[in-house]
């Protein structure tokens, strides 16, 4: 199965969900044009409170559509963009790629994966029980975060629903994704 972009979203204000768009423009070094989280330094409010000069490793939030499918099957009313993602993917296990993986989205845009999104209380506030649903435990009891991955824009370009995604892994040895 080929990997594709299912939907794209922008949030111009600090709200939980993002609005669907026909296309988003990714800007190298900044993020999604018009999105509140775009910038060279952190824009997520909790990160700004800690240290506003930190580099923004969370310019783009990517989430696999298969998580939406799983959550709907469990009775949650969720749609693409509801969980705050900029890019909804289909056919790509974004949670299993190593740090530094580059995703070529459409004809030009490139996003480098920096780590896992750390689900927070806002998910629970959006839908009761949803925070527990996007967290899991592996066979060793370690916490598994399923709320997508974060990345930085390496190469600018427009991204649209239906665009193909080409995955390019970094050189070995690979580093597992950690929360960013």
TrEMBL record:
Cleavable signal peptide: none
**Which molecular function term from Gene Ontology is one that the record holds?**
molybdenum ion binding
Coiled-coil boundaries: none
* Domain MOSC per the UniProt entry, residue ranges: 18-168
Instruction: Spell out the protein name for this chain.
Output: MOSC domain-containing protein YiiM
Organism the protein comes from: Deinococcus yavapaiensis KR-236
């Amino acid at each position: 199965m080929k990997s594709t972009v299912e939907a794209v979203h922008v949030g111009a204000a600090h709200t939980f969900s993002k609005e669907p768009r026909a296309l988003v423009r990714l800007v190298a070094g900044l993020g999604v044009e018009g999105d509140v989280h775009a910038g060279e330094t952190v824009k997520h409010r909790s990160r700004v409170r800690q240290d506003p000069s930190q580099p923004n490793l969370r310019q783009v939030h990517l989430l696999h559509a298969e998580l939406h499918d799983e959550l709907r099957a469990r009775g949650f009313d969720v749609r693409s963009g509801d969980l705050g993602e900029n890019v909804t993917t289909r056919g790509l296990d974004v949670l299993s790629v190593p740090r530094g993986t580059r995703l070529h989205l459409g004809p030009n845009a490139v996003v480098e994966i920096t780590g896992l999104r750390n689900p927070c209380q806002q998910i629970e506030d959006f839908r009761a029980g949803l925070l527990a649903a996007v967290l899991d435990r592996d066979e060793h009891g370690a916490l598994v975060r399923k709320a997508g991955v974060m990345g930085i824009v390496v190469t600018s370009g427009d991204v649209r629903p239906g665009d193909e995604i080409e995955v390019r892994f970094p050189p070995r040895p690979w580093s597992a994704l950690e929360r960013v």
